């Protein structure tokens, strides 16, 4: 199975191409084929995983050489896959959650005339994401990185007949390009420093280059990660990305693609291990984003945008953990895994709510849905308990570890990062409980045409499966340090460090803050009346509701000067460059008109031309050379 | 005294299969009376022969552990270089045969019903009424391919001449067989024939001079004679120049290119597709072998000629293509420019050219056949809705991207490949050729070539702009219809896939080209 991992990429990719090329002929069964392709990928992934479990920890790194991609002079680029515990973890997450979401989409997109295309894009995404995590070099990773970006763009803009959705897709695309430039710069720096882009070569020679170079590479990688993972300061696209169909938000913009940045950092652990500066910046970006996301989440009334803000915040936790170095890598991936389950579950729950409420997303028009949609309520509730970090649900095991690790260290850092993580937990409890109570509890504030009902089985089954993960996965993986041991071949063994506060104190503080946050939300949104229109906001609410005015900042700092610069360039281009080109062009055209006359159509002149040319050539030799 | 030649028939198998099938095709013409059956039989025979020969050649390639075998001492070799060219020619021939067999939805084929009838005569009208067909084009195609394959594997100047005539004569006939604009077609064929005869004479004169100096006509013999008499080259150099002119004529290099725009435009488009790809490949094959197994000691004397011709060819081909208004003519001049790019590889006679030139011709040939296959599908439409001849005026292509995005997209891909844009096969081809030239110290030539390809991109992209971005008001839209046959679609798809594949994953083809980069002397 390990040698067959190329199928993981090939099968969904082939299915995607077939779905696009067959056109309407595949409308009737296309979605089932998409689901089958995703399921097949999961089966292959699970097989590889089981085979890997049977191996010793040291021999779990398996390289699959696919082909020599480019071979020219000194540059040889091989395309190959690296199957190790880290990549197989992602493979299982992507294919398992992906398959469930394919199934969910069968029901969710039932009435959409372009359902086949939707599945083609989903398959494309799965293939690209698997290529991203399985690649054995930064260059091949970049192919997957751009592939998921493309799939994300296509899916955000899937309903592009609405101009604002198309704009959202463009925004995601453009912001992601900024991050991509970071990855390109990082690859350039690596190529200059190591002469290769394969993980093997780069990681083997990190010791040979200066710390300054490593820091530069690390920071460029971080730029890439902030773009893809919606971290500060490139986070602004994620909220708008909720324009895509909800299964897309669940799979791409919650569980998998947005975590690619975390993957990139953890995969590059060898580089970050040697540069404390870059690590510190990573942790700072994570801490800032986790608070920022939480604050934005408190002010949103749109259920999907609130969940998007929460995604940002949770990825902030992962970034923070990754920035802590070897003690944090494993916990970053651990939280990524549990988050993938509970957040995808909650997004599917939100989709189910919208499905039953005529695509309403304003939580102020929900309320009391627990009776109308019992399955959705229960599964969403499990996700809610998980993200709050209530023991024994999944989030507790992973998030608590990150908070503890954040308190490890010397000087000011453990206090700043630790407190940020701790406060973040309280804020998370508040805004998630607000969301949960506003949607499922309190009084019904439905619009007149709403007739909430439970969704069909294709939608509820994935929710139930994911909620089991929300409930138990964290406990299962944390018991006996199963997961950290599993990742050890990749992330390295982490020495145990004592946090600056005792572990029970941290845990107690966390739980107290969570209880306060949830309790406050209950009083405000569970028991009290919720007005159907948002009350006049305070200054703080306003700032949060507008995403910290990130769009305005971007516009003022980047877009305006950029517009002026491009206008100047366009002018210079028209006057100078075009002038020169057009001058050359019209000159060439005149030359062409002249030369064309030699093509008179008369054989005798053609023959004469040949004869003259031959005579000229011979004469030149006789006179000149000999 | 006459001694029977010692032939290795097994080594000749690919050529024998093709020529034998051509002979059978002539019999089929005589025996099968029903036109539809005959066409089906001829197409099947041609495809079976070309693909069968392709398989045999591929097996020979795979089983040859060394550079290859000598098929007939002093005359023919089947080394990997020759096999590579032969495989390429067979692919072009199979694709060409599919285009030959395609017809419009109304059942009209590309060829005249009766080649012997004078245009506009009662005989022609009668032939049209009786729905006669000239299925002779299939055997003619096979003979031409057989000649070209021999052309690529011979190591003797006289044998080369025989092969040259074997593939040229069928081409002259095929050019004359267009269904529409028959006078133009016959005129183009006649010009092609006269100038071809003229250049053959020049070539033979060159061979005579070489024979006079070396007392042999084999490549290796001439090479030995040149090496043996370094001081006295008075006959060798003019002889070599005349021989090269004969080959450059077939390659379509300026100023020996004059036949090609007229013949390309006049010929039935399927014939143009085959001829543009295969003739150039055969000529390049012969040029590579002559230069690197016979004339390379004359590098100092000959390279200025190659440089001059290359530069003039690139400039004239590109510049004159800029002012063309007919798409077939534009592609004809573009193919002239490509002849110049091919010659760039010979700057400095770097052995890298042994691999670069076949790869370049493969990329160029696939895109050429694809582009002409697209042209056969874009048809004029009369007011009463009947589909007429090909719409070859550039203005008629405006807005094609909206009418048939896939077809226009395929055309755009071929044009980008001609222009050498990355991720298409053409880019890798140009890269290889330029790398070979730089390896031989010919960087000034590469500079000219890069400038020429930049200028050439203009007229390729202009057509793309015309297809996709030009808005034509509804009432001024030219009456154009996309009329296709499954065969043409198959050809377009195959060439599209190959062009993209060679652009994205060139490694295997480059490896094969590099394996082919060894020549056997043939002794």
Task: Describe the structure concisely.
Helices cover 73% and strands 3% of the residues of chain A. Chain A has 626 residues and is mainly α.
How would you characterize the overall build of this protein?
The complex is a heterodimer of chains A (626) and B (523). In chain A, helix 4 packs antiparallel against helix 5 and helix 18 packs antiparallel against helix 19. Among the domains of chain A are: 293-535, no CATH class; 554-625. Chain A has 626 residues and is mainly alpha-helical. The mean pLDDT of chain A is 84. Chain A has helices spanning 6-22, 30-53, 85-108, 115-134, 138-156, 163-194, 199-204, 211-228, 237-240, 246-255, 260-267, 269-273, 276-299, 303-323, 326-356, 369-372, 374-388, 394-406, 413-440, 457-478, 482-491, 503-527, 539-545, 550-596, 603-625; strands at 62-72, 75-83. Chain A has a two-stranded antiparallel ribbon with strand order 1-2. Chain A contains 25 helices and two strands. Chain B has 523 residues and is mainly alpha-helical. Chain B has one domain. Helices cover 70% and strands 4% of the residues of chain B. Chain B contains 20 helices and five strands. Chain B has helices at 9-31, 35-63, 80-101, 122-129, 137-153, 157-175, 182-214, 219-228, 236-251, 259-266, 269-295, 299-322, 327-344, 353-377, 400-403, 405-419, 425-439, 443-468, 486-504, 507-515; strands at 68-72, 76-79, 378-381, 387-390, 480-482. Chain B has a three-stranded antiparallel sheet with strand order 4-3-5. In chain B, strands 1-2 form a two-stranded antiparallel sheet. In chain B, helix 11 (269-295) packs antiparallel against helix 14 (353-377). Chain B is globular, with a radius of gyration of 22 Å. The A-B interface holds A 67-71, 584-585, 588-589, 591-593, 595-596, 598-599, 601, 603, 606-607, 609-610, 612-614, 617-618, 620-622, 625-626 and B 190-191, 194-195, 198-199, 202, 233-234, 237-238, 241-242, 245, 249, 255-256, 258-259, 261-262, 300-301, 304-305, 316, 318-323, 455, 458, 505, 507, 510.
